[in-house]
Amino acid sequence: MILELVLVVAVISLLLYLFNENCRPSKFPPGVWRLPVIGSLPFLKMPLHEHFTTLSKKYGKIFSLYIGNFPTVVISDANMIREAFKLDALNGRPDSRVFTERSWGKKRGIIFNEGKDWTEQRRFALKNLRDFGFGKGTMEQLILDEVCSFREYLKKFTGSPVSLNREFNLPVLNALWHLIAGERFSFDDQRLRAIIKKLVDNFKAADAGGAIFFFPWFTKLAPKLSGWEAFFSVLKPTMTFLSEPVDEHRKTFNPDNLRDLIDVYLNEISKTTDKTSGFYKDDGDKTIKTVMLDLFVAGAETVSTTLNYSLLYLINFPEVQEKLQKEIATNIGSKLPSLSDRPKMQYLEAFIAETLRYSSFVPNGVFHCALETVEFNGYVIPKGTNIFPNLWQVHFDEAVWGDPKNFRPDRFIDENGHYKKNDNLMPFSVGKRVCLGESLARDEIFLFLTSLLQKFSFEPEVKGSPPSMEASKQGGLILQPQEYKVVLKERTV
Ligand SMILES: *[C@@H]1O[C@H](CO)[C@@H](O)[C@H](O)[C@H]1NC(C)=O
User: Fold this and answer.
1) Which residues, if any, are the signal sequence (predicted)?
2) CA dist 356 to 353, 441, 483, Å?
3) What residue segments make up the domains of the chain, in order of their start?
4) Which of 211, 281, 385, 449 could be disulfide-bonded to 71 (CB atoms 3.0-4.6 Å)?
5) Residue by residue, what is the 3-state secondary structure of 251-269?
6) For 62, phi and psi rounded to 5 degrees?
7) What pLDDT sits at residue 208?
8) What is the rounded distance in angstroms from the CA atom of residue 162 to the CA atom of residue 119?
9) What pTM was computed for the model?
10) What is the pLDDT of residue 202?
11) Do the Cβ atoms of 264 and 128 come closer than 8 Å?
12) The predicted structure's pLDDT at residue 23
């Protein structure tokens, strides 16, 4: 009996060994073992970014694993990531239902698109957002309007501990939405709040290594169990919500007076005769809605998460908060902050950089996919391979940062007290797919933080025992802070 058992185990191990040795593409980076169908999943631990860091110590700054049948490469070095994302061949997106179902079964729009249509759409959106004030004074004014209303709105929360959960989403989204649809939302728009809540929950649920992404057959077989149903329950109401302004714009459209981004798209659609273009007729209609969804999701969630982490760090380090408030008092005083104050706010700049580094809340970036087989750093990355940049590890590499586990804005300050850039900080990713909204995001973070710190102080619920700075254990594309409350005190300056 025992002999037979040993024999069975031996045969299975041998088969597994042969499978792992022979079914690897040649010159594929070394890495984690896999099983047929489910890939390396049984050998991976959550949270993924931390496990990837352990694995890279064993296998190197570029290593491999399998998610289902998909070969996957994890890159954990800043220069290698920069090099990889310069290559057009490595700038695709994985073929996952999660990325295509939201755009009528096909890759469209900007975030999850690739190839020629992606290049065209990205360029078009960026150019027109700029024309409407993205990165210009108009945008600054729109943000400042939001900042002012938001400061008023926050006053009702002062004095006792509050969970400001999702309060940042709307004001942050509003400025961008103004450019897109020519309107803003009221801070207590209940329908929008419900959608944002669901979108954020979805982001959390969309576990980067989970079933939803990589086992399409499983999501079809067991829509409930796999989480597919929950994941997509939000899509329909969101799309209806986003379609309304498009329909409204159609009714009042005038090619001689393009009011906002939606008008510009409608204009382009009406001019397009090339049947293969993403702007052609019905495709154009789907493109515009996908782009709106992209901007909506990106605009609502990322900056507000940054602000959330900022507050968390401010209440953990009262001396940092005080220093920032002094910097504001010295350089801005009591007037409304503006982007022209930015060069004077060197410590704040360092604080923002450290916040982005320390939170690293998009720990594995948004993964890429190889469109062609390429040679890279002595290895071969076959077409169809997923590529994860482990940004978290880049931001916590001891060889680079010395004491990465300490929250220390001063690491970004030089001997003259000026902000000092570090090329290993890449929270917006790098290369051709670098976050399209980076400059808008930076403007928003700056204006919101200065204005809030000018008018309020932030304290923990229990004096002397601030909330944990560790992210919540829930995996996902975006790491959220743990639940915490903050006490707002109004300041007079
Ligand atoms: C930050 O996020 C946590 C977790 O979702 C929440 O409990 C907290 O209220 C948020 N804080 C702020 C200031 O938004």
Assistant:
1) 1-25
2) 5, 12, 19
3) 2-490
4) 385
5) HHCCCCCCCCHHHHHHHHH
6) -135, 120
7) 42
8) 44
9) 0.93
10) 67
11) yes
12) 76
- Flag whether 369 is marked binding: no
DSSP state of 88: G
| Predicted local distance difference test score (pLDDT) of residue 25 | 85
What percent of the chain is modeled with pLDDT above 90?
64
Please name the residue that has the structure tokens 């090619």: 255
Closest CA to 328 of 451, 151, 457: 451
For the chain, how many residues are written?
493
CATH architecture of 2-490: Orthogonal Bundle (1.10)
Ligand 1 pocket by Cβ (under 6 Å): 163-165, 168, 308, 311, 480-481, 483-484, 486
Pocket test for ligand 1, best of 150, 157, 165 (most atoms within 8 A of CB): 165
Q: Find the range with the poorest average confidence among 56-70, 125-139, 216-230, 322-336.
A: 216-230
Instruction: Output the residue whose Cα is nearest ligand 1's atom 7.
Output: 483
Q: Which residue of 202, 308, 313 sits with most ligand 1 atoms within 8 Å of its CB, as the best mutation to test the pocket?
A: 308
- Segment 447-464, tens digit of pLDDT: 999 999 999 999 999 988
Angle at CA 329, nearest 5°, toward 328 and 334?
95
